[in-house]
Amino acid sequence: MLFPQLSLRESTGDTVILMPDSAQLPPALLTTDLGRHRPLAIGKVRDIYAAGQDTLLFIATDRISAFDCILGSGVPDKGRILTQLSLFWFDHLGSLVPNHLISASTADLPPAFTPFADQLDGRFMLVRKAKMFPVECVVRGYLSGSGWKDYLATGQVCGIPLPAGLHESDQLPEPLFTPAAKNHTGHDENISFDEMIARIGAPAAELLRSLTLAIYRSATAHAATRGLLLADTKFEFGTVPGPDGEPVLILADEVLTPDSSRYWPAAIYAPGGPQPSFDKQYVRDFLETLPWNKQPPAPALPADIIRNTRARYLEAFHLLTGRVLPGA
Question: In what order do the strands lie in the sheet with 55-60?
Fold first, then answer.
């Protein structure tokens, strides 16, 4: 167990068995090899292939990034954890918003990709091709990370004034919607809600803000039943043609995973400083101890950091879903 103070049996009704330190980790999948097929796009984690006129194949590798750089080591099973957790949340949130998922079953792979089923199993999604909004919908329920740094400097978070005297990791009076966009360097760029309106129009901006907050409240309620606090997260939305040809809003990409969200154990939550977490902050904290300028090439991770990061991801999956990842 990563956090001895947290009783998983007490908070979730079961326990998770983590791999002993002496056990050998499985290999990490850093690149996909689908024969003659070439990816349309290669992201920090996902490789995306065309799978039909209006269908894409999303494959989550075991790459891990920090400070906008892909690190020199992967985390075994990370792509499967991200995919299976996104599938869980797509199902959980289905009554709130439709999503881009078509199937994650190898039985539904297009014939061209069936020879690679073993490589893809558990880490792919067939999805509808969507017209994506050029913004990330970020919501913060607690004062942490870059929000805490912003508050110390300005008394605000992304231009939104907050009461004086707040402490690091305090719960905010209300969840804050703080959109972000990608600039030409690929870094996340915080933008104001007015700037979001200027980019996508007021009706879409208002709808995405309202939907983001509704999803966050639903996710925090579920996480609370599993002994977790959801400090912050981000979503991406797009549109696909509906039956009548009119655009239908959908939730896309990954959802509420440790890559996109900050989860804390509720039982040991103690505002006034950083919190133990199940997200990539553990890796960021390690990288901050290195003489690295946060520019490519990024360093590789030691075996113990890889092992502990994998354990955090696996434990987050178990806590949120009540399941153990098959084969992990």
Answer: 41-42, 46-52, 55-60, 124-128, 101-103
